[in-house]
Amino acid sequence: MLDAAETLAREVKRRWQREEEQRRVHDPFPLPLCWQPAPAQLVDYAANVQRLPPGATPQLDLSGDMGSIAEVYQRIRSGRLVILGRAGSGKSIMLIRLVLDSLAAFTLPERVPMIFNLGSWDATAITLRDWLIGQLLRDHPHLARRAPGGPTLAAALVDADLILPILDGFDEIADGLRREALEAFNATSLPLVLTSRRDEYAEAVRGAGAPLNWAAGIELVDLTLDDLAAYLPRTARQAGRDDTVAVWDPVLKLLQATTCPASVNLTRVLSTPLMVVLARTMYSETPDRDPAELLDITRFPSAKSVEKHLLAGFVPTVYRPSVPDREAGGFRQRNWNPHHAERWLGYLAHQLVRHGQDRRDLAWWQIGDSLRRSTRIGTATLVSALCIAVSAWMTGLVAGQVNPEQILVEGAMMGLSAGLAFGAVYAAITAFGGTFQPTHVRLRLRRRHSVIARPPIQTFTVRFAVVLLGGFVMGVGSACATALVRARYWETPLASLEVIRATLINMLVFGLIFGLAAGLVFGLLAALEVPVDVSFVATPVSLLSANRATVSQQILILAPVLALTIAFGGRLVVDLLEGGVLGELRWDWPDAFLIGAAGGLGGALSYMFCFTAWGQWVILTRVWLPLTGRLPWNTVAFLEGAYERGVLRQTGAVYQFRHVRFQQHLSHSYCERRRRSRRTPVHSEG
């Protein structure tokens, strides 16, 4: 257990060091983040915070700056701290510094500080403990290994109080769920750090009737003009710039000397680190831009208009054609068209807004869910039909069937029937809220003794029961296809009682053959799965690559084993069912191997594309969305490029937009463009 905590601490430290470098926090130096004590009505009594007995005099010193945030936190005996601040005030950056400073002197059995984004938590649907475990498993797949005694390492670490939850974005929880979330926190004594915008947290406190139990609180204050004067001039370092004429000096002097409306507006805007970083990107790092335009009161009559300008200008600036190509994350960074990039990013941001909640996690396996359910069901039906049809055509040609027309018709009928069956299963899964999550396992024929996993019998039973239905519907589809082919070439009337009886018998027999074979093969395959190596680091690209490798291995095993199991298992099922009510049944070996080959290959391909997270990524995100112009063809390279440019950030296995305000701006801009395009009349020429 302690070894797992130590390994996790090293991984977390490495991850957030990289993220801090990616955000250029220390270039040229960190912006000064300071705070003041939070309002008294939003924090607990100091004696409660320090867990003192009655009559004791509390001593609680919360003074400090970003460089001493870990030291300040250590002074809080309860281990509970609320960090308040308005949007863009630097709360997330402070959390990263808290994690890194805490891990700099980390020794067991201290808690491992872990940052979790709260926007995805619904306190009415899942407990805090279970949600934390789920987030750990998503971002650190090796924690799916079993600890001595049964639970996963993720659950064992949480239960052993070896995780310090640092919960970012309390204000991003849906409006109606914040009070329940605060009450859930108050029902535990778990040490934690919580960030939120002040108004949203105050509203939740009023709704719950009390602030967070045993929690101290600080509130970030705005940057001052002195902070801007020290920081902004040192960010303008383009080659060839005349150092005697600093680009920011005239603007800063005017801000310090006058209180005209334009100066007041710009001073207010540049009081948060987010807006300072956006202004730096647009003006310090672009030779042909002059920040003096921000003081144009006609163009920017309000602080809101200045903010909108900075938000709108960020993407065109970082995607300007002068950005050189370089290797980034294994992908060659390319010059994407700024207009297209903004539209694609807007689409992604818009898809994160659902049910009145701005979700933060942009997961590659969920991008396809942005399509309507009917579209996804239709795509799955079409793809599975093609997989079965192509497999039937290939096996028919290899088997040397002499009638090409019959091969085409039989394959098409089998594909259509099986496609409709698979589409029905897919529709049932999605209708009940089922999603296709990325796998966090790999295949291994021999297990190491150090790997403690779920008992193989339990694993086999669960997978067998789940897959049995899918195999059965594929068998039903094959029986229907057989009836249609016989009606076409043997001229047997479909409406006759004899044909109907034979078709129903075939449905039952084929359903059992395919269902039992699929359940058996998938169950045995599940018994070979073990958690990923402890050295595996879950980033979006690495998780995608690991899923592609795992699915490829599964298909190489599934297709031949499933084909042979159908062929030989069919013989066994027919022998057991023959006679009695069903009468005489036939399962000739040539037909058995032909059906087994078509079913094995087609079933494996249909499973790969329609019922795995990687397959859904391929057919929806890599094909359908680019076909409709909503995403680029090379989506992986685009997302990695956005990360390298600072538009996105990585949090474990998912991306996030660099700030929720930026995400909201892109979403609103995307919606506005769609509305304008719908209102624009189309004129014919000539």
Automatic annotation (TrEMBL):
Keywords: Membrane, Transmembrane, Transmembrane helix. The chain crosses the membrane at residues 380-400, 412-436, 457-484, 504-528, 555-574, 594-620. InterPro entries: P-loop_NTPase. This is NACHT domain-containing protein.
